[in-house]
Amino acid sequence: MDLSSAKVGFVGAGNMAQALAKGMISAGLLKANQITASAPDDGSLDIWKTWGCSTLVNDNTSIFKESNIVVLAVKPNLFTHVVRDLKECNGPENQLALSVMSGITIEELEKGLFPKVPNLKAIIRVMPNTPALVGAGCAVYCLNEHASSKHADVTIKILESVGICYQVPERHMNAYTGLCGSAPAYVYMAIEALSDGAVKMGIPRQCATQCAAQTVYGAAKMVLDTKRHPGSLRDDVCSPGGTTIAGVHALEKAGFRGALIDAVEAGTKRAEEQSVHK
Fold first, then answer.
1. Could you give the CA distance from residue 13 to residue 182 in angstroms, rounded to a whole number?
2. Contact 26, 135 (CB under 8 A)
3. Taking burial as the number of CB atoms within 10 A of a residue's CB, which of 90, 126, 201, 278 is the most buried?
4. Does the structure show a pLDDT above 80 at 1?
5. What is the phi/psi pair of residue 138, to 5°?
6. What percent of the chain has pLDDT over 90?
7. 20-74: per-residue pLDDT in tens?
8. CB-based contact 179:173 (threshold 8 Å)
9. Interval 255-275 mean pLDDT
């Protein structure tokens, strides 16, 4: 599939869809006029129009009819509504459906889509995250049995244009949802809290937030670039009797690590609950 001439349609136009579309446009992978987005009303489509994308109101059938790649980006509980309202249609040859809906399995996607879109066979389930908007996304994906290496290659191109990606077994997708999909929110909370602490100690808010964000970014880059264990890098900062080990002790007493572990577990369980059959 040649992305330079491919038509990409988004069913759903919210934050995740916007992050992927804007990321692909910014990376030069697609032109805005190759993209169409469909949503129940004009509200969430306004920003797509400013990018130069085509928009449709409540017309998912046209998305499936005309798109080489269909990105399913509605909230998981709305998937049954999408399928119910979809008119039977055939799309382009070798069509690919990418689902970014958490908790919806490949089996459920096939059961819902195949009767309505008989030519559609290749489905790839993807869990991206919103930092794709700034080219720093982290995504995982798994393929159904009909998805070829060419379908996988085009998926990798799309995801790598906005960050990094890994192929994983489907049984791990909900856990990756709890990690990659949800964890940016936890990091934003950590940045905000670090900024609050600095303001409490007398630092102006704008500088506090910028320094907190840059520090988190720098620490993450150290892990990625050095490939060292985070614990080893932490030890480099903790000099005996110093300020950092005092702070680490305060975090341990507050249950910092346990809270993050619990958050990933809670996100994973919620993704499991979002299956349309539950």
1. 19
2. yes
3. 126
4. no
5. -135, 120
6. 85
7. 999 889 889 999 999 999 998 888 899 999 999 999 998 999 999 999 999 999 9
8. no
9. 92
- What is the rounded CA–CA span in Å between residue 123 and residue 147? 6
DSSP 241-267: TSHHHHHHHHHHHTTHHHHHHHHHHHH
Opening angle at CA 244, ends 242 and 247, nearest 5: 115
Confidence of residue 278 (pLDDT cuts 50, 70, 90): very low
Residue type (1 letter), 274: Q
Task: Work out whether strand 35-39 and strand 8-11 pair parallel, antiparallel, or are unpaired.
Answer: parallel
Its pTM surpasses 0.70: yes
